[in-house]
UniProtKB/TrEMBL annotation:
The keyword Hydrolase does not apply. This is Protoheme IX farnesyltransferase. Converts heme B (protoheme IX) to heme O by substitution of the vinyl group on carbon 2 of heme B porphyrin ring with a hydroxyethyl farnesyl side group. The lineage of its organism: Bacteria, Pseudomonadati, Pseudomonadota, Alphaproteobacteria, Rhodobacterales. Belongs to the UbiA prenyltransferase family. Protoheme IX farnesyltransferase subfamily.
Length: 311
């Protein structure tokens, strides 16, 4: 839990950029993209204004989750090199401000999505905010090395919410888009953890590299990648897939699987000798992996409009 007494005094008045950073814009951009894809690939057309408003409120909900996360995690964010420059641990925004912004934006986003779309989409957004802010941030993150595995569900809901905006429900297609992000999250973050070295240990976060060692982390990256591949390819066999998506998925998954095997084979001495070059390469690939899969789904949907590209 955040202890405000350990935070540095506020260094000057916070600006707009500080409050915007509080919403984790990089994470928000991924949420917006995957939610938009989920909405656009759905079989039910959505009015452009409804689509714009819905994606906006989903983005605001994601930002609210980020603010609540920064409020609670300010103590450990201050310790980790990757996060100590964030608005709250750096003292530019107070924990109380972060909490208020997160709570107000959460309520606003859910209510407005309910009014602009439907109860299913609003309910999924409310659950996503709760899951990320409470289940992951306040409980899982500091309690279990499975924090990333279970907590990954929070980042996997946006395409399902987008689909619900259009259809008012959940389907096999939206569940597979959820599963694609859910299964991608562990190898993505564990590849990062391998070369972040002592950050998580210093902060007392039970990341798998800390609790079970780096050898086991490498093995788990391979296991989750082996599960991820059929999920990604299986998505291509549904109504939202097609030859274009399948071609992209085949190339990406072969490359990602090779990267996971390379990580698994590596000894720690080899990784340290070349500055974790392979681990960093796989992590960079993982960033493109998700974007290109959802981009292919979107391109497939555009082709479908013109009566081409489907199975």
């Amino acid at each position: 839990m955040t202890d405000t007494s350990i935070l540095p005094p506020q260094s000057g008045e916070a600006g707009f950029g500080d409050y915007f950073a509080l919403l984790k814009p990089r994470v928000m951009s991924l949420v917006v993209f995957t939610a938009l894809v989920g909405l656009l690939v759905a079989p039910v057309p959505v009015h452009p204004m409804v689509a714009f408003a819905s994606v906006l409120f989903i983005a605001i909900g994601a930002g609210a989750s980020g603010a609540l996360n920064m409020w609670w995690d300010a103590d450990i964010d201050q310790i980790m090199k990757r996060t100590k420059g964030r608005p709250v641990p750096s003292g530019r925004v107070t924990p109380g401000e972060a909490l208020q912004i997160g709570m107000w934006l959460s309520c606003f986003a859910v209510v407005m999505l309910l009014l602009s779309a439907n109860p299913v989409a609003a309910g999924l957004l409310a659950f996503t905010i709760f899951f990320y802010a409470v289940v992951y941030t306040m409980w899982l993150k500091r309690w279990t090395p499975q924090n990333i595995v279970i907590g990954g569900a929070a980042g996997a809901f946006p395409p399902m919410i987008g689909w619900a905006v259009a259809t008012g429900g959940v389907s096999v297609e939206s569940v597979l888009m959820f599963a694609l992000i859910f299964m991608w999250t562990p190898p993505h973050f564990w590849a990062l953890a391998l070369f972040m070295k002592s950050d998580y240990a210093d902060a007392g976060v039970p990341m798998l590299t800390v609790t079970h060692g780096r050898r086991e982390t490498r093995r788990q990256i391979l296991i989750y990648t082996l599960i991820l591949v059929p999920v990604a390819l299986g998505t291509g066999l549904t109504s939202i897939g097609g030859p274009l998506y399948m071609a992209v998925a085949l190339v990406l998954n072969l490359a990602f699987l090779k990267g996971a095997v390379d990580i698994w084979r590596r000894k720690e001495e080899e990784a340290e000798a070349d500055g974790y070059a392979v681990e960093k390469k796989v992590f960079r690939l993982s960033l493109y992996y998700l974007f290109l899969h959802f981009g292919a789904l979107l391109a497939q949907a555009v082709l479908r409009v013109y009566g081409i590209g489907g199975w």
